[in-house]
Each structure stands twice: as structure tokens, then as C-alpha cells.
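Session log. Operator J.P. requested a structure for one protein chain; no other inputs attached. Running the standard single-chain path with C-alpha cell output.
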Amino acid sequence: MNTIWFPDLAAATGPKYQTLTDAIRNAVLKGDLRKGEKLPPVREVAYQLSVTPGTVARAYSLLVDAGTLEAVVGRGTFVADGSADSQDAPLTGNAIEVDVIPHNSDSNSYAVNMLSPHLPSRGQSRLIRSLFAEIAQDPPSGMMHYPSRAGSLPAREATATWLSQAPIGPVSAQDVVLANGGQNAILLVFQALLRGRKPTILVEELAYPGFRRAAELLRADIVPIKMDEDGLIPEALETAARNHGAQILCTSPEVHNPTCAFTPEERRDQIVRVCRKLDIEILEDDCYRMSAAQSPSYRMLAPERTWFVSSISKTLTPALRLGFVATPPDKASYLRRAAEHSFFGVATPLTDLCAKLLTHPQLPEITEHVRETTNSYVQAAVNILGGYDLKWRHDVLFMWLTLPEGWRASAFCQAAEAKEVQIRSAEDYQARSAPACHAVRFAVNAGVSLESYENAIARLRDLLDNPPEQIGV
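Structure written below.
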């Protein structure tokens, strides 16, 4: 940007972010800021105006949401081609574009949070806003009714269509139960299936922490099962199940969280045989898969006992909290009862949105753009850390780094945080009594520019290349 333009906020009487929002909008309307012109970075504007970066980021975000500005990951924020009227532009053809800058965040940021994935925005925000506008004008489920099974039918039909892209066997709207996100779906399965005063749940020795949290809420015991490079070890599974009288096995065979591992079909068949022999239900967590599955799911291999959990959090957005369970045939009533007794049902505006969103013709193109952008971040990390023991996949939103000898996971996380990079220790995925695993998981954060992400990964590389003296590598 050749001519730097900053509004004067000295006389502002209301919230500064709103005053800045109005000033930028007026500058666009008057032509002081031209279509396609790049705005200064958030931190530069904040410095010039003596306000916080969050104030500027909020103003930019409001204007992006309105269509006045356009945020392009890795490049910055620009005056949108359609200026102030672009919010009303129809979503047609292949017009998929980046449309969100995170609140209170700077896309060119030194501090980078890699605790949980942050999806790139590749048109899904604009599409969701458009669909919400349609629903607000004429809500299919109305605005004065409790959620109902009949009212959620279009959403369940859309979900069944969306889930049918995975190899999970026949699934109809009657097999689908909606939940408030994947974690809520897991809790519902536990509530529907667990019985007795102290039930037992089996998990992988490194497992998604949400399994433990849901178990704790229901006062259930968690027993970790040994793994190898192909996933759960069937013999260890059978021994633990017999010793503890387990009722449910929780597993992520397609994209294991946190190691990126994949369980091949032969191993899945062995696990199914154990579960059938000992009458164990299977909760299959498929929330992290972004591309086509590589093997038949447990729901296809053992449809009578598999509860397939998914959500849109890792493919579209985690903000909506839309999760799904494809139940075993003729068993949806158990789960539906748990949902209705807990919260009556997912809010009707969300089920109306779900029905439109999951069948929208633009959705395949949007999700492909999300995968492509995710891959660019993963590849950047691999290029920098590839010389170390790094587990990764192009279509997975996190990576697993086994630390060199001498480093402890907790110490490495603390050292990384001192360099303003937040990552997760392996301890977060282990039972409290388990021996320490010296590894860390870090996620793709596409809410910051690719350059910022690469710089953060480079700081992790610097820690590995130049450990503190006490590490003794």
C-alpha cells in the first residue's frame, strides 16, 4: 500500500472499534480507499492509533462479515471488489473466496496457538451467513416450537446423505441422531449404553481426552489399551475387556488422535471379532477425517454394535456445534431418548441450517478448498521439521512429534510457550498413571498467515536444533 491512510479516533465518543469500522466504511464509500486496495496490518494500525490490536481486528472482522473488506490468508486484508454492497452478492458458480479474519486475532501474528486446529475460511462463512439469512426470513421449523423428531427430519436426511460418502454401510434418516457437536455425541452414546454402578470404557493408550472427560461425568472407569503402529492390539483388548467387564470401546481407526495413525482393515477385522466375542459396543470417532476413508468403517464391519460419531468441526467450522451419530440399525431410539431427556433436541435454527448446508451444491468445492489450504500448512511444517520423528498426513489437521532423547514433553511445551507457540503434551492424551510419553501434538492454525505459521514452526525447529544445556542431548 503506497498511501497509508489512518482515521482520527481522538474525538471518538463510542466504542473505538465501532468508530474505526464506520471510518473505514465511509472511506470506501467516498473512494478514499479503493476496491482491491490493501489495508495496513492490524498491528500497524493499532500502533498508529494507540489502540489494542483486538480493537482493529474486530473492526476488520465486522467489515469482512459485511462484505466491505476481504481477508486473504497469507496476503492480508483488502477492500472487497464489491465494496459495501458485496454482502448481498449471490453465491453462484465457483465464486468461493476467503471471507473471515478471526476476532481479536491478527493474520500476521508472532504468537501462534496450535493447541486445537483452526480451519481456513474458504467460503463456508459466507455460505453459512447466506443460509442463516434465508432461515431468518422464513424458518422452516418456525420460531415458537420446541425441537421435534418431525422437525429435524430434513436435517437428519441431509446428514444421512452427507455421511453416506463414507464407507459406513446403509444409513437412513432414522439411523441419525443430531447432537451439539462431536463431544456431545460421545456423551450421548455413553449415556445410552452404560449400565451398572461403575461401568468401564476402553480407549487407546493415547486417546482423545474427550473420552475421559465424558467418562468422568458419568462416573465410569477408563482403561487404556496397548497400541502398535496399526492401532489397538487385539490380544491386549481382549485381556482388558475380560479383566474389567468393559462395555464400550472408543477408537479412532481412520485418523487416530493424536498420532495420525491408521488402522488397516485386517486389524479392524480382528478387533471386531474380539468385540463380538465379549459383546462390546464400539464407538467409532471419525471427527478428524477430511478426505475419503481408506478402509471400511467399524459400522460397516460390525453394524449391529457400532456407533459412528462425526461432526462438521474439522471440515467446515466448529462454531455451529453440529455433531452426528449414525447408530446401529434399529437402535436409534436409545440415543434419541438420551438426547431428548438431556436437552429436548438441537435448536431448530441449527437443524434448519443443517438441512440446507449439508446438501448445498457449493459444499464439495468449499471442502476441497479447505483441504488444499490445510495441506499447504501441513507441508510447510513438514518442510521445516521433516528431519525429526514427525508423523503427519496431508489431510489431517495436526502432527505428532516424538521428541529427541533428553527432552520431556512438558519441558518442551514450556519452552515453546516461551517462544509464543502453544502446543499439547502427550500427557494430555494419556491416562494419569501411564508412563511418560515424550512427544507433542501441534495443530494447523490457518487463522494466521502461512508465513506466521512457518515462523512459529521454525521456532520449534530452533528448540530441537539448539536444546538448553540441561537437556543434555
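Operator note: The chain has three domains: 1-102, 134-357, 363-471.
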